[in-house]
Specification:
With 316 residues, the chain is of the alpha/beta class. The protein has eleven helices and twelve strands.
């Protein structure tokens, strides 16, 4: 029996090479339209996606043979986990591949916030020589609060140490962190000069940055989000920036992507916006593609499952 793997998103060619070398049939024409994916999914045993394809209830319902969904990335918010679990489909992610890429981007955004780099660039492009408007602040000696101390949070902490920052972190699932002080959220909010978010979205973390938590923060805090947009109540953050409670924010992710017209944080003074570039490095895309392909090969051919985010399906 030959298994069929559908790859409706553009992934690095190494994934296709690994799948084909294992003897699997692969459909990977590049970025597929929604209707094309719906038509092709019925014959697929496995699905490899990035963030563009939404493996929602309708797509999963159209899949008659699907056993595995592999997300070439960390977040699986574009997968309906309840619908997948109901059909016994294992959903796997690739958490290791984009760790460095995301950590480097988050740290770059923090530097850009501290030194007003995008704004100074725009000023120069407009023909100005304006130094006074872009007085910055050093990272050295500042306190960085990391919310979510997994792979990416730890990578951020290593880089912050090199910049001589004091690092504190909050993660309810972590009990020890070498060289980093673990604190509760109110303590982190009250002490941090910079806050960077690296949590998944769940019932506890949805809109965790809101009017109430923003009011608990040190006045003049700067916030970086390269995790998931739904961690932040975007309207509340916009108001906190306008009031001066928050000195600035750098955002790579948004609750709705792409952000709709009139988004309160797009074009707002003090905000740096990038279009979800966290995993957009050549190295990361190769790494997550390879990892996703290997997950699918091992699941289909060996019955070996790893990185399963809906682990209860394995008990069925």
């Amino acid at each position: 029996m030959t298994f069929h793997v559908l790859v409706p998103d553009s992934v690095n060619k190494r994934a296709v090479e690994i799948l084909q070398a294992a003897g699997l049939q692969v459909t990977a024409p590049g970025q597929m339209k929604r209707e094309e994916t719906l038509a092709a999914i019925a014959d697929a045993d496995a699905l490899i996606i990035r963030s563009a394809t939404k493996a929602d209830a309708a797509l999963i319902a159209a899949a008659t043979k699907l056993k595995v969904i592999a997300r070439a990335g960390v977040g699986v918010d574009n997968v309906d986990l309840e619908a997948a679990s109901a059909k016994g489909i294992a959903v796997m992610n690739t958490p290791a591949g984009n760790t460095v890429a995301t950590a480097e981007l988050a740290f770059g955004l923090m530097l850009a916030l501290a030194r007003h780099i995008p704004q100074a660039y725009d000023s120069m492009q407009a023909g100005k020589w304006d130094r006074k408007s872009f007085m910055g602040t050093e990272l050295r000696g500042k306190t960085l609060g990391i919310i979510g101390f997994g792979r990416i949070g730890r990578a951020i902490a290593k880089r912050a140490a090199a910049f001589e920052m004091s690092v504190i972190a909050y993660d309810p699932y972590v009990t020890a962190a070498d060289g980093v002080e673990l604190v509760d959220l109110p303590t982190l909010y009250g002490r941090a000069d910079y806050i960077t978010l690296h949590s998944l979205v769940n019932d506890q973390t949805y809109h965790m940055i809101n009017a109430e938590s923003l009011a608990q923060m040190k006045r003049g805090v700067r916030i970086v989000n390269a995790a998931r947009g739904a961690l932040i109540d975007e309207a509340a953050l916009a108001e906190a920036i306008k009031s001066g409670q928050v000195a600035g924010a750098a955002l790579d992710v948004y609750e709705e992507e792409p952000p709709p017209a009139g988004h309160p944080l797009i074009g707002l003074a003090g905000v740096i916006d990038t279009p979800h570039l966290g995993a957009s490095t050549e190295e990361a895309q190769v790494a997550v593609a390879i990892e996703a392909a290997e997950l699918v090969v091992n699941a289909l051919l060996k019955g070996e499952y790893a990185n399963v985010v809906n682990a209860d399906v394995l008990k069925k």
